[in-house]
């Protein structure tokens, strides 16, 4: 086996490869274009395309694709081969600059939320030169943005890139005020920790609900779950180990910095954490990671479940979005520094994030809203649906001292003056980690923990980048006109703490008492997706996104439509799957079982009147009455499905789906799960929770 350092990035047209394969002048021009975010001129594109093609062919590629991220939450690709016919029934391999910079996928069936009328169904894809091209399965993949000819973003990448521009613009204004003459660019960085389940493929395929919806719609609790905590960080089973080894290798070849792999809390649950990178690269890499996890699991006769809540009563899967802001000179702006100036800058950026999270808590909630994640947020293993921030006692103490103009700590006699004093040292606690906070400061970054495991990370980062950009804009407006910089800075920080400290909560987020407290503080608690989504098109948020040119009004409305529609579709598919399972498998199975029980009772009786048939008789009674209850409940569900057709639009349908259909599904499930506990497992038509969760040996 080759050494990792030898094959890391093997399939990526990265900076080293560019340097080697491109003429020096071309390389320099390309770097400049990328850095300035300018359009590539066609002459330059032709040279780059040709070098890219030669490199790809050397590595066995025959096709290329514009790899893009439509609003389906996953990625899309259409493969074109490099071949071009020439005289004499021959072909040559060709790839032009035009094909590199712009593509035109026949993409009329991707969701557009009305942005692309069918008469102009074409959208086009454009190379995002900040993300390297790579080879996957013999195809040269070019990361691209996907837009309509009217210029509307039809994807997840375009708004993310725009939000990175927005925060760069405003953060640059702020850090110029602190000197920092050498900085030319500020980027946000992200490391996305990914949770997932692995189950045996043969077992998976016996569960219609897993196959059609990604989660189990029925299933009574197994005798053993995660109560012993023996899976968390436990020894990794050989089959899982083989999967992880192959996954790491494949990710490394794609230049993805997979770093840690370990078992998670629930049986069959695991996690992968990468080393962080620039946000748009992290988003691309997370998409590739999810894709490869699913593909490689299949090679090991397993299935990777990325659903947020595959099993009721068992921990769900999330994604932790570790986020920070850095300069191109390598300074992490959320890292407390050693000098008064560095500290002042740190506190200002910290306050910007605090105010942004408070002002736009509704948007952070929207960014993680999906039918799957609704089963997780607020259940007792995931952060609640209320957005709050954890800063830790030490940092909170410092902020409180600044606000109250009181000395901090025992040794300090003086009041802490921002810009004049250094911050008292506070330990980056690694032990006292608050795992229940939706948004936790972890020493030099924030960890946003509300994302669902199948979420693209783009949306959360669009919200974060834009919200922080807006606050930095306001801060820059104040400070650029400061008369006495240190004093005005001090006031700005003090006032921000005072106005936004309600969002800071260091206690246990899983505690019910917190929900009462949060309500008292006026924090939002949008429990479900239909409750959360309307914030996307609230006046203040339209203003935010249009000011920073991240989303136009039309783009926001389109996204609202798509998200609502998606929610309704998911519930609809789940309800139909449930009905199918009940009608075709579950009721017939219990009917057969009661038939056998009745037969047994009858034959016992005919043998001898004295033999007791209590067990059979009682069970037949029990099961029959439960089966009748299931039968009526499923008829109720069928009636709701018909009533749903009357809903005027997706907004109404989403509410109806949540209030009526989903509630009815929950009731139906309780009955069926009870039935499962009473039915002979030879008759029960599906593998049990125990069978699935412990299927990988
Ligand atoms: P911790 O022990 O604090 O959780 P880790 O080093 O394990 O820290 O990091 C957790 C995740 O956070 C990793 O994916 C890591 O790459 C990421 N991370 C670390 N620093 C940053 C940063 N400055 N910006 C974004 N993500 C970061
Ligand atoms: Mg974590």
Quick synopsis:
With 697 residues, this protein is α+β, with helices and mostly antiparallel strands. It folds into 3 domains: 4-154, Roll (Ubiquitin-like (UB roll)); 164-551, Creatine Kinase, Chain A, domain 2; 566-693, Four Helix Bundle (Hemerythrin (Met), subunit A).
**CATH-scheme architecture of the largest domain:** 2-Layer Sandwich
What would you give as the CATH superfamily of the largest domain? Answer: Glutamine synthetase/guanido kinase, catalytic domain
Which ligands does the model contain, each kind named once? adenosine-5'-diphosphate, magnesium ion
Q: What Rg, in angstroms, do the CA atoms define? A: 28 Å
Uncertain spans, ≥5 residues at pLDDT below 50?
A: none
For the record, the CATH class of the largest domain is: Alpha Beta
Biggest β-sheet strands, sense, barrel:
9 strands, mixed
Q: What is the number of strand segments?
A: 17
How many helical stretches?
23
Strand content: 5-15%
Structural class: alpha+beta
| Anisotropy-based shape | globular
N→C terminal distance: 26 Å
- The CATH topology annotation of the largest domain reads as Creatine Kinase, Chain A, domain 2
The total number of structural domains is: 3
What's the average pLDDT? 92
Estimated helix fraction = 40-55%
Architecture overview:
With 697 residues, this protein is an alpha+beta fold. The protein folds into three domains: 4-154, Ubiquitin-like (UB roll) (Roll); 164-551, 2-Layer Sandwich (Creatine Kinase, Chain A, domain 2), CATH 3.30.590.10; 566-693, Up-down Bundle (Four Helix Bundle (Hemerythrin (Met), subunit A)). The protein is built from 23 helices and 17 strands. It has helices spanning 4-7, 15-21, 24-36, 42-58, 97-101, 157-176, 201-205, 208-213, 238-253, 279-299, 340-359, 361-367, 371-374, 393-404, 458-480, 485-500, 512-520, 529-532, 539-547, 553-607, 614-644, 650-678, 689-693; strands spanning 63-67, 80-81, 83-86, 90-93, 102-103, 123-127, 134-136, 139-148, 186-200, 258-263, 269-274, 277-278, 302-305, 318-327, 389-390, 439-441, 446-452. Strands 9, 10, 11, 12, 13, 14, 15, 16 and 17 form a nine-stranded mixed beta sheet that branches. Strands 1, 2, 5, 6, 7 and 8 form a six-stranded mixed beta sheet that branches. Strands 3-4 form a two-stranded antiparallel ribbon. The model has no long low-confidence stretch (mean pLDDT 92). The chain binds adenosine-5'-diphosphate and magnesium ion. Adenosine-5'-diphosphate is lined by residues 189-191, 193, 273-276, 322-324, 332, 442, 444-445.
